[in-house]
Amino acid sequence: MSVLFVLIGVSMIVAGGFLFGFLWAVKKGQYDDSYSPSVRILFEDKEKKSEELLELENTAKKNHKS
Amino acid sequence: MANMQQETKNQICVHCGDDCGKHPVMWNDKPFCCNGCSTVYQLLHENELCSYYDFEANPGIKIETARFKEKFAFLDEDEIANQLYDFSEGNIRKLNLYIPAIHCSSCIWLLENLNILNKGVLKSVVNFVKKEVSLTFDSEQLSIRQLAELLSSIHYVPEITLDKLQQKQNKDANKKLLYKIGIAGFCFGNIMLLSLPEYVPGNEYLETHFKNFFGMMNFFLVLPVFLYSGNDYLFSAYKAIKHRFVNIDVPISLGILTLFIQSSFEIFSGTGAGYMDSLTGLIFFLLIGKWYQNRTYQALSFERDYRSYFPVAVSKMEKGQEVSTPIEKLKKGDIILIRNQELIPADSILTKGDAQIDYSFVTGESKPVFKEAGDQIFAGGKQMGSAIELTIEKDVVQSRLTQLWNQFEEENSEASKLNSLIDRISKHFTLIIIAIAVLSGVYWLFNDTSKAIYAFTSVLIVACPCALALSAPFALGNTMRLMGRVGIYLKSSHVIEKLNAITSIVFDKTGTITQADEVKISFKGDKLTAEDYVAVKSLTRHSTHILSSSIYDYLKDISPENVEDYHELPSMGISGKVNGREIKLGSAKFISEGISESKSLTTEVYYSVDDKVKGHFSLSNQYRHGLSDLINSLSSKYDLHVLTGDNDSERENLEKIFPASSNLRYDQSPKDKLDYINKLKSEGKKVLMIGDGLNDAGALKSSDVGISIADDVYHFSPACDAILESSKFSDLTRFLSITKKSIWIVKLSFLLSFMYNFVGLYFAIQGILSPIVAALLMPISSVSIVAFTTITTNLIVKNRENQINRKKSDRMEMYQTSKSVQLN
């Protein structure tokens, strides 16, 4: 039966992990805006954006030179 | 790429979705309603940001006048700019900007890709619920003014006002509550688990070292709940007793303290398992109730005062140079420059230029007033036309308009909280509970001394008004949320209680019972030919005057032609040549000396061709749909009043709509309105004021409940308790009856929770309250109360909603689908 002490200890650590996760999420403001993340996930990937950025930069440089 | 919406008649603007009219602005084979929209499209097209148009159809924002040249000049002042920053280190600046125009997923996409438009923007994140953009930018590459102008150039105009500057919101309050709930929930769950062995049959065989271990675990787990999560209740009760009154937190704290002391004693003395599970459960449920009640509309502002109407800064003339100066720094004798469409921040004297002042903010009257050099101009007016110079007479805070407002600054809302239903009940409740506890304690003292203290504490524990404290937050919180869905947004759930007690309703006229943007136009005189209509339309096209644009909109299907020799005389009229005929439109005096303006109910615009008077257009206000139905249904229950800043020209019409018993008053200044409300209140009436403009602000604030009507709920509305969508105005009776019913539900749930208390007391008085009874009773009562209130409030609002929908389809009225406002 003494294994109960170990089990309770383990369960407290696991539950504590979730509590910590919750507090962290609140702190990071994950509950501040419940709408935009659902939309944001559907937007284009970052990579493509940076490609566009590069292109823009290149054109800007060219324009600058000329 | 952009979706082309072809319509049989007119094309729809690719950018904003408006009707383009007969002659759309074409760019790249795409139709636009105006140059503004097409400019934004071109800008986005050049930067390959046209995916903007993919997420939603026609997501853009249309702006009537695009004048931002000097609007954000005040941001060049470091003093103001520094107030806006959340973070500033080196070149990096961080700030949050409120942009009311944010409304869809395209907005989020574009605003979060701002760095493509300008590389000075390092990061931008939209908070959709608050309609805010959190921006990080490099001040080397981009100044804050340029940033504001960049946002404006894509028609997302940030709203920077003084009151936003002064109150940095306490965002942490909400987060703190979530922390508390998280910790309480964690401890509650674990304590339940550890207490369970006590409740199962055969627990007497449990070895003592397990019992001790569980007990100690419970004690350590309860500490954070008792000391952190539940400390608000203890503090609040302490404060209440210190000020010699009893609120609901007093019996709650009594319960919490007794539970804690009794359980700790049992655990350490080894006499029992204690009620730690009940204690943590109690606090956990109470906190959830609190959280539910605190969920309010973050994106809506109910606290606006004059500062949010006024510009942050104006141009001051100093030695012939314009200097942007914050308005609180303006002093008597300063000379300021006010441009077209700018607000006058302080009472002053006109020194240069001709002013056309639109006082609609202050008086509700939309006709501009003409002023000449030397005339006095009051704060709150808006200049229409060319720039003017003013000498300031009074400081901003001492101007007539602002003083009206400042009267309320000292009054605090604390007094109103005391009167709430729950606090009135808890006063008696606490006394009764203490009496019962003492009586049963005394009884057992003489019969079985060992049970005396136990009975005493049991009563306090079991009577702890958890269910009672939960019923109001859930019933009212849910009603508030549901009412938001049908078009009325309450500032807090306390407003429901106040609405329930209303005896009198006071209406403002212009913009409230009349539709601000719709006028009824008819022509009296000779019959007009098609040529006449073309002439009128062509002429009015050139004027920005409110009457001209009304008439222009009225003549929808006529295409205007060229006007030669166009002239506009301020506050007189307009003239010009159309197809070789000399056309004049304007006041009677302007058209010909001979005719006198008839003393009629309406505003008149005379029309003449080649100096021959043909007749006049009469423009009158259009009352809102369903107004007379609404008044009929209200008049049996409430006494009605109308206060209007206009003259009594509408008397006949109003008397037809309102019953004879109601009070109609004309020529009311903002101060008169305020005094009238106070008079009603001193007669012991509970007053509901419904208004829209700044002129009602005083009255809205001094009334018991102030509702402001708005076409766009995010737009400026004066400080109030609730914002009503103007299209839902005719449903007011239903809103009031919903509040009545939800108060009934609160009362019923009070009864229900008293019943649970009786059951608990039955055990407690006999001194046989076991931890398992307490542990079961508390969650059962709380959960059933929450379920009861939520289901019933949903039912009453649903019912109403169906009725409203049925009525709507009966009348075949098409209301614009209301923009959703999200909670929290």
What descriptive keywords fit this protein?
heterodimer; A: 66 residues; 76% helix; B: 824 residues; alpha+beta; Alpha-Beta Plaits; Calcium-transporting ATPase, cytoplasmic transduction domain A; 4 domains; 6-stranded antiparallel sheet; 30 helices; 28 strands; 18% strand; disordered N terminus
Commentary on this structure:
- Chain A: This is Cbb3-type cytochrome oxidase assembly protein CcoS.
- Chain A: The chain crosses the membrane at residues 6-26.
- Chain A: It comes from Marinifilum caeruleilacunae.
- Chain A: Keywords: Membrane, Transmembrane, Transmembrane helix.
- The complex is a heterodimer of chains A (66) and B (824).
- Chain A has one domain (3-65).
- Chain A starts with a helix and ends with a helix.
- With 66 residues, chain A is mainly α.
- In chain A, 76% of the residues lie in helices and 0% in strands.
- With 824 residues, chain B is an alpha+beta fold.
- Chain B folds into 4 domains: 73-166, Alpha-Beta Plaits (2-Layer Sandwich); 173-296 and 422-475 and 741-809, no CATH class; 331-394, Calcium-transporting ATPase, cytoplasmic transduction domain A, CATH 2.70.150; 502-703, Calcium-transporting ATPase, cytoplasmic domain N, CATH 3.40.1110.10.
- Chain B contains 30 helices and 28 strands.
- In chain B, the strands form 6 sheets. A 7-stranded mixed β-sheet of chain B has the order 16-28-27-26-17-24-25, sandwiched between helices. Chain B has a 6-stranded antiparallel β-sheet with strand order 8-7-9-15-10-13, with no helix packed on it.
- In chain B, strand 1 and strand 2 form a beta hairpin.
- In chain B, helix 12 (276-294) runs parallel beside helix 30.
- The longest helix of chain B is centred in the last third of the chain and has 41 residues, at 771-811.
- Residues 1-8, 409-418 and 810-820 of chain B have low confidence and may be disordered.
- At the A-B interface, helix 1, helix 2 and helix 3 of A face helix 4, helix 8 and helix 9 of B.
